[in-house]
Design a protein that fits this description.
The protein has eleven helices and two strands. The chain is mainly alpha-helical. A two-stranded antiparallel ribbon has the order 1-2. Helix 2 packs antiparallel against helix 3 and helix 7 packs parallel to helix 8.
Length: 268
């Protein structure tokens, strides 16, 4: 509702209740208490276009990048001990009536909700409060992908996302300089010096622009079992895709009576 005084009163009451429960005198996390169905107050404020409430919650210590746990009325009802119809009703009444309560919003941040609500004020407050414009939801989408075309919210998200990407690229380049790929690979693979150096040199050429989309970087690792083919592919995928678990897919070819082969295509 955007009632700042009521927000402060409820936060103070939650702090007092926490103090009575644990007697530790700590109020950490109170602002980020979750609704039984998975969302936080900051997400509600952003979804309902309440930038003043967003600013106040951030000032009180709300974390801007917490992710939504609401995966639709049916999925959320069971863990919360509710009937799906009750979950559906509470989502509409206690979160936002203009958003589809049957849909999954799993992994959404407050910034995703601000983008969908086309709330430039809430998006600006979140970004100034440290929200990550490159954060992705459970479906792999950024907040920018939910913003309306040709809107101030989209322009704001685009501008900040570009800054984050440039800063991340600079940090990654500095990390690669201080900790070369060869050194990373040798921490996990014993021996195989020639293979490691060959792979690292090819990756470095790609990173420096000596590659194009018509000639993708592809490796074929051959050899007997246990010499490090799979581990080399795993570590290379981890390096190039920043620990994304979906970057490495293993197909066991033993069922087809084919000599063990591990391939990795490196796509930027």
């Amino acid at each position: 509702m955007g009632n700042i005084q009521e927000i402060r009163r409820q936060i103070d009451a939650a702090k007092a209740n926490q103090d009575r429960r644990n007697r530790k005198g700590s109020d950490e996390g109170v602002v980020d208490y979750r609704h039984p169905l998975g969302w936080t107050a900051l997400m509600v404020a952003a979804a309902n276009d309440q930038p003043d409430a967003v600013e106040e919650l951030l000032r009180l210590g709300a974390k801007p990048d917490l992710q939504e746990k609401y995966a639709g009325a049916t999925a959320a009802a069971g863990p919360a001990g509710m009937h799906p119809l009750e979950a559906l009703q509470r989502r509409e009444e206690e979160f936002c009536s203009s958003m589809n309560a049957r849909a999954s919003f799993l992994g959404w941040t407050a910034l995703h909700y601000a983008a969908l609500a086309d709330s430039a004020g809430a998006a600006r407050a979140l970004l100034e409060g440290g929200a990550d414009p490159t954060a992705r939801d459970h479906a792999g989408r950024r907040a920018l992908q939910y913003a309306r075309d040709a809107s101030p919210t989209r322009d704001l998200l685009t501008q900040h996302a570009r800054r984050w990407e440039e800063a991340a690229a600079a940090a990654a380049a500095e990390e690669r300089r201080r900790f070369p790929l060869e050194q990373r690979l040798r921490r996990h693979i014993v021996g195989q010096r020639a293979a490691i150096e060959t792979v690292a040199a090819a990756v470095r050429r790609k990173e420096n622009g000596w590659a194009d989309d018509d000639h993708p970087l592809v490796f074929l690792f051959l050899g007997s079992s246990g010499i490090g083919k799979t581990e080399l592919a795993k570590q290379l995928a981890r390096y190039m895709h920043r620990d994304d678990p979906a970057a490495f897919i293993r197909l066991d070819m033993s069922e087809y009576q084919v000599t063990s082969v591990c391939t990795l295509q490196c796509v930027s």
